[in-house]
Amino acid sequence: MVIVMIVTVSVSGVVFPSPSPEEKDAGYWERLMRQEVKEALNIRQNHGVAKNIILFIGDGMGVTVNTAGRILKGQKAGRSGEEGYLAWERFPNSALLKTYLLDRQVADSAGSATAYLCGVKANYETLGVTGRVRTDDCYSSRQGANRVDSILKWAQDAGKDTGLVTTTQVTHATPAGLYAKTAQRKWMCDTLAKKEGGGKCKDIARQLVEDSPGKDMKVVLGGGRQMMGAPLEPSYTSCRRGDGRNLVEEWRQEKERQGEMTTYVTNTGELLNIDVNTTDNLIGLFAENTLPYHLDREEGSQGTPSLLQMTQAALAILSKGPRGFFLMVEAGHVDKGLHQNKAVKALEEVVQLDEAVSMALTTLNLEDTLILVTADHSHSLTLNGYPPRADHSHKLTLNEYPLRCNNIFGVSNLKDVTDELPHSTLMFSMGQGYNYTWNGTKVVRRNLTGVDTTHKEFQFPAAIPTTTWGPAHGGEDVSVHATGPMSHLFHRVHEQAYVAHVMAYSACLGPYLHDCPRPVTTPPPSPPSSPPTHHNNNHNINHTFSNQSVLEEQHSNQHNVTDHSAGGRGDTLNFTEDESHQTDDNIL
């Protein structure tokens, strides 16, 4: 058991100001809203055929998590945060997705992955199979009629290069939804598949390297060396291979038998120095199990790459294909941090996803690339209690700080709270942050006075105690944000399975290979909206690729996006990463 001590310090003096003094005036809002109306009136639909598709998944990134991540992004830049945007929140098309499973009101990551990747609703903990397969039903999962193909297979059938990036194991539920067909997401290695499945169902790691479409991917980046039989250290994991096979080496050898150059990397330095020109296939496993949180990772050459660096490397390889590509990128530790009620770590993963999406927007041709950002399910996080939003024009006295502090990880002490104890802005309905006692008369919650709730290991309060990976998900709809060809098909509340169908229709793949008609006259498409002209940002990142190697990220004040969507004119857009009011092991 690891006991984490949280240092007790006061964080009440941290105040993030509103960036716009003029926001108190009605004229400010009229100007701002008129600009939004004008943007909406100028939206043009892109009816082109997508050459490339990138699907970004924030695992567990429900609407509340998205909002809190937006605030954190702004506060990291010294602003109040609420007025800003995450990169995908400026996309021209958004909708809501219903995430329920056929047998559960609240989804896990496996059943939901089957929906948005394969286009069918399924059951709890199953992957790549229909609703006729119940959890742990090995026999039914082996029947051909119960198996379904994914967007990965459809893209490969069309000659596109494909890949995945994840901060979890490459055999974990979300990435496995691309290639695995199984009645149990936990069967990531042979030992668990034999123990729980009777030995007749192939484990997920073997499906990745032995079966299509997994074995035909060009890029696989994430964690899970032990599931793949390629451990570099004897650390414990719940799923070690028992057959003695090194599936990474087998995958590499098979690729080379096909005459393709394959590069295998295990740390940041090796990833950043790959030769893009000579590398046909790239596999990177950077941890025995899952990757560390971004706040915990070692940033040196021997450490673990960031989500941004892995996404950049994947695009460098996949962009070489003449027929385009499909790439899925998962920020898996959003979910992990929320399960542990460690909101500081979880929301930092949202910010990292924002950087990866921003990089993709500056790298790719938005005319022929469909970019989606969504979540597989929500979580039980709440943002509550009338926390203050700091007034930039009001000089705070020492006594006012506790009432005016607006740190997203902070606490409030409001008079209507009947136990007269401070409460955190962020709380969970379920999880490990449960901390209540009985004083002989009544139930008493933890007193947060003097507790550093901004510490990365702090577990925010939860109403119901659970195990580490207990039932902490949320069942409300999740948002989906889209830009690129046919992105306007997202327009209301949809079933989650609709995502796979929109991706397929956009690129004329799979079930829409010969059924994806377009209007005769195609109006110029609309890129992600630019910020109001008085908005700037000092926290932007510009990324470029080299034909020789993947380069380190380079910082600049503004993304210069070449917009090829307006009739191929090559117009330049000013797309900021944060457009605010001013200067700106089985996780379920």
Automatic annotation (TrEMBL):
Pfam families (alphabetical): Alk_phosphatase
Composition skew (Basic and acidic residues), residue ranges: 578-588
Required co-factors: Zn(2+); Mg(2+)
InterPro entries attached to this UniProt entry: Alkaline_phosphatase, Alkaline_phosphatase_AS, Alkaline_phosphatase_core_sf
Compositionally skewed regions (Pro residues) per UniProt: 520-531
Cofactor: how and how many bound: Binds 2 Zn(2+) ions.
This protein's name: Alkaline phosphatase
Species for this entry: Petrolisthes manimaculis
